[in-house]
Structures are given as structure tokens and as C-alpha cells.
Amino acid sequence: MATFFTADTHFGHANVIRHCARPFEDVHAMNLALTQAWNAVVGPGDIVFHLGDFAYRMKGDLRKLFDRLQGEKHLIAGNHDAEATLELPWASVRDIAHVVIEGQRMSLCHYPMASWPHLHRGAIHLYGHVHGRVPATGRACDVGVDAWAMRPVSLAEVQARMSAARSPAAEAFARRLDGKARGLVETAERLLPAWAADAVADAAARAMGEETDRILEQLTGQGPGGGTP
Prior knowledge:
Elements: E1 3-6, H1 15-19, H2 27-41, E2 47-50, H3 62-68, E3 72-76, H4 83-86, E4 92-94, E5 96-101, E6 104-109, E7 124-127, E8 140-142, E9 153-154, H5 155-165, H6 168-191, H7 194-220
Parallel strand pairs: 1-2, 2-3, 3-4, 6-7, 7-8
Antiparallel strand pairs: 1-9, 5-6
């Protein structure tokens, strides 16, 4: 059994072909290609987390299309997931999920987030919504079909893309900052009650996350400062 991630399939949405420059003549060709790409990598016993915008104004039998897609399917709802989508027989439907998969902590949401639980304990963030327009960082990645050749992706593929997004300088800085954050949290867990230690961890994640993002952007040339300080 393997686990896969995807988002923004927009089954039935003709205009998304033009908006996202998808290589299909019409919505019928897109629906077929997306289904075939899904089943080419996902087996009947696999698990798929769909991070929102499964379908939009689908004309035809949405349930029939859903049933053709292999795997146990979980939905993290997006802004285009209307009642017809939400009523499909998903294994679960949530707005956001904090899960551990293959030993990796992660936060799954349709929208990209600036911070998330356990960010400085190695947790990563997967999202959709942006249709390949936001590049991966060392900690977060778009899993939408427009960023992955119209198919679901594995955790190993996501981790490889995030690793490639980090420059050596950014990687070294992140390790140092993460080490400081972990030291603070470990001290709090040793000296404080559990509820207080959790509060310290959350506060550290928020504060350090903002500083990490600011400096990593400068180191990778993606922030307002650009280049290496």
C-alpha cells in the first residue's frame, strides 16, 4: 500500500484548460486524461489525499467518474468543492489535516500556509490552489496536477522536490535555526507541564517560522532583499 497526494483536478471545468494552459482540446479529453494519469500510478489498495478542487460544474455522472479513480480517497476540501463533491463517498472529508505518513509529519490544506504545527520539528506542508504558480520551498510543496504533469505524486517525489529547492546556504541556516528551536522546546518539555510546553512549542513555531521565511527568502534570492546577505 502506498500513499499519494494531488489537488486541483477540476474535473468538468472547461475554463481551467485555458486558465492553466492545460494541453487538452476539451473538457472530455481532460477528464479522461486525468483519470488515466491517476490510475497509472494509484493502485486499488493505495491511499490518495486530494487537497481540494476535485470538480467544478461537472456535467455528467460525477459519482461514476469518482468510482473509476482507484484507491482509498480522502478529501481536504477546496473553495470549488460544492455539495455534489462533498457528498461523494470519500473515506474522509476535512478542511485541514495534520497527519503522519511514512514517518513524516505533515499539514495538508487546500491553501498554502505561512506556518503550521511542528514546523520546527520537521513537519512539512502540502497544498494546492495555486496551480503550479508557487515554487516549492524546503518545507512546503504544491501537489496540484498542474505542478506534476497531471498526476498524483508520492511523498518521496515531494521530498525530492523540496530538497532541490534549498540552496546549500539556506539548508545550513535552516539546520542551525531548527536546532535552536528544538532545544527550546526540549527544555520546555523537561521543565514545564505538558500544556505549557505545548504553548511554548506553538509560540516558537510562529516566531521562528516568520524569521526563517524572511532569511530563507533572502538566501535563495526570492525575497525583497534578494541574493545572499
